[in-house]
Design brief:
The protein is an alpha/beta fold. Helices cover 64% and strands 11% of the residues. The strands form four sheets. A five-stranded mixed β-sheet has the order 2-4-5-7-6. The protein has a five-stranded parallel β-sheet with strand order 10-9-11-12-13, with helices on both faces. Strands 1-3 form a two-stranded antiparallel sheet. Helix 13 links the parallel strand 11 and strand 12.
Length: 699
């Protein structure tokens, strides 16, 4: 009897496990098929965009062709990259999706049209291209390509529906088999088997509940994605409409005051887009568990007052009173991430101002509990807004939730602010609370425990405390333009500057001299900046001292943040430079008695002359490196040029040099050659502008 029971029960278990496995496998396959369909749909849209951009290029005036060719290039790059991804998905049968022979054949059927459109699109980027003939070639193949993509999507939908029907039949069959085995077990094994059958049924019930719960969770996730897409589409289109519309009006008007008004609207719309982008990046970093918190001394009172000062004009514009009530001592410092704390407070206060039409908003900061080593600090934001219903208060912390949407409010947003604040608070082992009453107002509270800092207040706020010390500074920089700029800026502010053009030269000088700070370029000939820093640190370790080492780079990376005491991004201003020095400088130096002078036009003229002396040589070296596929040299030269030209222009040349640098890092000859062809005339034009005595380029 026991053997029969084991066999029967094993059969039931295997059928149950097999059914669950098949269902899960089919759900996974459906998700992958959906992803492929999305890629195919995106490729179809890009194909149409390529034709549209090419048509605009054919109809463009002579002065507009350069900008339109760049638009075609961007569309072509994304279209080509998408095709490569889709090719790996469909044609190669990679794990992303299981493809039928029909799908693979459909994809192969459109390969010739794709190649023809790609060749014509790339040919359009050439200055002497016969635009009409290439456009005709693209239009000739576009219809067949789009029809092929439609057939691929339709085939996937057809196969997905067939799989669902097959799954349902299989589920019924497995259910019938399971019931048959259970009945046989009840007849053969009798009462002991019945008890065990009841246990099996209970397990099956739990499995079914889990599947239902998983299904509900998946549906909720899909609904959240739909809400997100709707919200993000609105939030992107609204400021982009303002940017495009106002820029068109600004270009057509001759009224300076009206143009300034249009530009102000464009600036505000750009800030809205930047805020949205930063929120999305924060959400992605938090979801990937990549949010980084730094522990540095800061004053809770100073952060509170800074947020109040930052948002007071926003409140005043709505006729609201924004007050700040801080009970924390001004000289009390704690260890934590001041920028993340400020981010939470800005979101809370901005939300309060956003939804409050009359009355006031108050920010309070207080110390709740503490001991000799730690303080619990609490911030409270109160407003006299409309309040939030009790059933909606917990939902307010969910991502992509905009509570006002269902209540007829005109307020917009994707609903990421409070969600980000809650995740940041949790990362700090803190707490974010929300208490609200309809018709009365809302109170949002943020509290966290912070270790007490022993650093003096003078070393904390780099914006509030200027550097009043004369430092001996070693500058490790191989570019003459940057050498001149750093020497002039630092000397004018009372510092002694020593220049080294390579890591080897810096090491020799560092062994002979003592310095208060070292500024190192990230990319140096020979030994790079990171290895140079490590060598200098070993010298410091042998001497029993520590000298701050600051990285100066055109492309900040996580490695730089870990390796160096601070990072300065090129192109930099004197304010950025001095702010970093004030944070990392040694305290045992001589005070400066002379007032700080601003950078003069003479310095800009000297920088221009220094750049022009090496510009032609650097351009020739870059062309030779690209032509001979010396990717490391080409990438280094592009990086170096990007750091130099950024002082004279903020136009597309800087971005094009960055794209060339990335193409060189990837060793992509075709793309690097195309980027270099775009950069050459821009470098020549910049040199002509700088040589003009009437040069008025902004630094």
């Amino acid at each position: 009897m026991t053997l029969r029971y084991v066999v029967a029960l094993s059969t039931v278990a295997m059928l149950s496990i097999g059914a669950q496995w098949l269902v899960q496998r089919q759900l996974d396959r459906g998700e992958r098929d959906s992803h492929v369909i999305n890629i195919a749909g995106r490729q179809r849209m890009l194909s149409q965009q390529l034709t549209k951009s090419s048509l605009q290029l054919a109809r463009a005036e002579e002065g507009e062709t350069a900008a339109l060719r760049k638009a075609v290039a961007r569309t072509l790059d994304e279209w080509e990259a998408n095709h490569v991804t889709l090719g790996g998905t469909v044609a190669s049968g990679s794990p992303l999706s299981s493809n039928s022979p029909k799908v693979v054949q459909l994809f192969r059927d459109i390969e010739a049209d794709y190649q023809a459109m790609l060749r014509s699109g790339e040919a359009l980027l050439q200055p002497d291209a016969d635009i009409d003939s290439h456009l005709a070639e693209i239009e000739k193949h576009e219809g067949a390509f789009l029809e092929g993509m439609d057939r691929i999507v339709s085939q996937y939908v057809f196969e997905a529906e067939a799989k669902v029907r097959w799954l349902r039949r299989l589920e019924i069959l497995l259910l019938v088999l399971t019931l048959g085995v259970l009945v046989a077990e009840g007849l053969i094994v009798f009462r002991p088997a019945v008890r065990r059958i009841e246990q099996t049924v209970a397990r099956l019930a739990r499995t079914t509940e889990e599947m239902i719960a998983a299904k509900d969770q998946a549906e909720e996730a899909n609904a959240a994605k739909s809400r997100f897409l709707a919200s993000i589409s609105h939030e992107l289109r609204t400021p982009m409409t303002a940017v495009l519309g106002m820029s068109e009006l600004a270009r057509e008007t001759d009224d300076e005051a009206q143009r300034d008004e249009y530009l102000s609207i464009i600036h505000d719309a750009g800030n809205s887009l930047l805020t949205l982008l930063n929120d999305l990046i924060d959400v992605a970093a938090i979801d990937a568990n990549e949010i980084r918190l730094v522990e540095k001394p800061f004053s809770p009172q100073e952060v509170t007052h800074r947020v109040s000062s930052l948002l007071r004009p926003l409140a005043a514009a709505k006729g609201l009173e924004l007050t700040c009530d801080s009970e924390v001592k001004s000289n009390e410092l704690v260890l934590g991430d001041a920028h993340r704390v400020q981010q939470v407070l800005v979101n809370l206060v901005a939300n309060a101002i956003k939804y409050t039409e009359a009355g006031y908003v108050t920010i309070a900061c207080e110390t709740l509990t503490g001991n000799a080593d730690q303080r619990q600090v609490r911030w409270t934001v109160r407003d006299t807004g409309p309040g939030i219903a009790a059933e909606d208060q917990q939902r307010a912390f969910e991502p992509f939730t905009q509570l006002s949407e269902s209540k007829g409010s005109s307020q917009t947003g994707v609903g990421l602010g409070l969600s980000i604040c809650k995740r940041i608070a949790e990362a700090m082992n803190g707490e974010l609370e929300l208490h609200s009453e309809l018709g009365v107002g809302t109170c949002a509270g943020f509290s966290a425990n912070f270790p007490i800092a022993t650093t003096s207040a003078a070393a904390v706020d780099i914006d509030a405390v200027p550097l009043t010390q004369s430092l001996r500074i070693l500058v490790v920089e191989d570019t003459e333009v940057n050498q001149l700029l750093l020497r002039e800026l630092l000397t004018k502010h009372g510092h002694q500057v020593f220049i080294a053009s390579s890591g080897e030269e810096a090491t020799d000088l560092y062994r002979r001299e003592a310095f208060d700070c070292v500024l190192l370029d990230r990319l140096l000939p020979g030994i790079d900046g990171v290895e140079t820093r490590r060598t200098l640190q070993r010298i410091d370790d042998n001497r029993g001292r520590t000298t701050p080492k600051v990285c100066i780079t055109a492309q900040v990376s996580d490695e730089d943040d870990r390796e160096f005491d601070a990072v300065i991004s090129k192109p930099f201003t004197s304010r950025n430079l001095l702010a970093v020095l004030s944070r990392v400088a040694s305290a045992s130096t001589i005070p400066v008695t002379e007032p700080v002078e601003p950078v003069t036009d003479d310095l800009h003229r000297d920088l221009t002359q220094a750049y022009l002396q090496v510009a032609s040589t650097q351009a020739e070296e870059l062309a030779d490196a690209v032509a001979n596929e010396r990717w490391r040299d080409a990438g280094l030269l592009a990086h170096r040029l990007r750091g130099q030209v950024g002082y004279f222009t903020n136009g597309p040349l800087v971005e094009d040099l960055k794209r060339l640098e990335l193409a060189c890092e990837a060793g992509n000859l075709e793309r690097a050659t195309a980027r270099h062809a775009e950069i050459q005339p821009q470098l020549a034009e910049l040199a002509i502008q700088l040589q003009s005595p009437c040069d008025s380029l902004a630094r």
